[in-house]
Amino acid sequence: MDATVRGPAAVEVEGATQDSRSLTTGMLFVPLVAARDGHDFIARAVANGAPAYLTERAPDPEVAATALVVRDAALALRQLGVLARGRINGHVVAITGSVGKTSTKDLCAAAFGSHWRTHSSAKSFNNEIGVPLTLANAPHDAEAVVIEMGARGIGHIAELCAIASPSTAIVTTVGAAHLELFGDLETVALAKGEIIEALPIDGLAVLNSDDELVYAMRTRTSADVLTYGTRGDVRSRDVVLDAELRPRFTVESPWGSASVVLGARGAHNVANALAAIAAAVGRGAPLDVVADALARPQLSPWRMEFARTTSGLVVLNDAYNANPVSMRAALDGLAALPASRRIAVLGAMAELGAGSIEAHRAVGECAAALGIEVISVGVEQYGGTTVSGIDEALGVLRERCLGPGDAVLVKASRIGGLERVAAALLAG
């Protein structure tokens, strides 16, 4: 990293952050310019314990910390990620896909963590900021690092792989997410497959055999390939959901079979668990140990969270994000609940491009076929009861006099902020 040092050169840092609010003592502060200029928060970061910071500006002599003066802080962060990757002597697992990236990341962290000291991406840190920060914040004794990777165009994942140099890569799905940016599924597949092309010859690719566009990626690498799904190397059988949508199943694999009680809700998470099993066991973790660990993953928020109000109403909070595939999975989960009435509060699915209207209509038809009442927040195509905003949606829910035996699903793209509906219901 090309930087001019101003202040004490012998300074020790532990990790990095671009957010002065989340900074802990010893972290390097990286001021990025976005809606707000991170340089305006350097003094706060130092006051919160940063011993050093990057800067594109002349250092303020009143700020008592080491300044690393760089031309471009964002570029310097990426270079920092490359340096951090160089000190990781273990597995680096990269995950991408149109659906299931974060859940698979969480399950992979549990699977690898059962056998190796494992660090993983926080939240959905999956871009040119989050990936290098994940690497920079990996503990010095980390034996495995699990990273989520997103893409908003051709070449994006290749750039992230140039930073992270993954040794294992997982592709979950190629679906109708971000079509406004990519145009068609073939272009999505081209972009997602960059993660497979980045693998070294001794790498491991883990591919979903039930997604034809993902399965076809096996020809894009010289690394070893493991598949999962109904025709894959790693398969499930005897899948049963309990009353809170937690799957139980038997995994069958080249290493034998094992029983799994999954700590992530919804039948769709069985496939994500198979991906995690294939990756971890394929890298040498014992199957029975991995299967046991999947009962206790640390899951990211607002993804099929199950809660019950004091009145007995079940609330499924899946409000972090949405696209047509994940919408159907969430509706299937709601339909599987033993409930008297099932209501879905649905917001818009963003970035679907020209097919947006039809995609929303199809989700509404799916809900109707499953016998689910729909409250549509700002989207007429879903059908059901259409409202303009969250307060109106809550008003309609209160009019329904919901109580014991009823269930409500809340789901939309991130821009919708529908987790506030779930929070209001749980608050009473």
User: At the third CATH level, what is the topology name of the largest domain?
Assistant: UDP-N-acetylmuramoyl-L-alanine:D-glutamate ligase
Distance between the termini: 52 Å
Beta strands, count = 20
Main sheet: strands, sense, barrel:
6 strands, parallel
Helix content estimate? 25-40%
Radius of gyration: 23 Å
The CATH class of the largest domain is Alpha Beta
Oligomer: single chain
Short structural description:
It comes from freshwater metagenome. This protein has 428 residues and is α/β, with parallel strands linked by helices. Helices cover 32% and strands 21% of the residues.
Describe the structure.
This protein has three domains: 68 residues, 3-Layer(aba) Sandwich (Udp-n-acetylmuramoylalanyl-d-glutamate--2,6- Diaminopimelate Ligase, Chain: A, domain 1), CATH 3.40.1390; 214 residues, Mur-like, catalytic domain (UDP-N-acetylmuramoyl-L-alanine:D-glutamate ligase, 3-Layer(aba) Sandwich), CATH 3.40.1190.10; 123 residues, Mur ligase, C-terminal domain (Protein-Tyrosine Phosphatase, Chain A, Alpha-Beta Complex). Helix content is 32%, strand content 21%. The protein has 15 helices and 20 strands. Helix 3 packs across helix 10. InterPro entries: Mur-like_cat_sf, Mur_ligase_C, Mur_ligase_C_dom_sf, Mur_ligase_cen, MurCDEF_CellWall_CoF430Synth, MurE/MurF_N, UDP-N-AcMur_synth. This is UDP-MurNAc-pentapeptide synthetase.
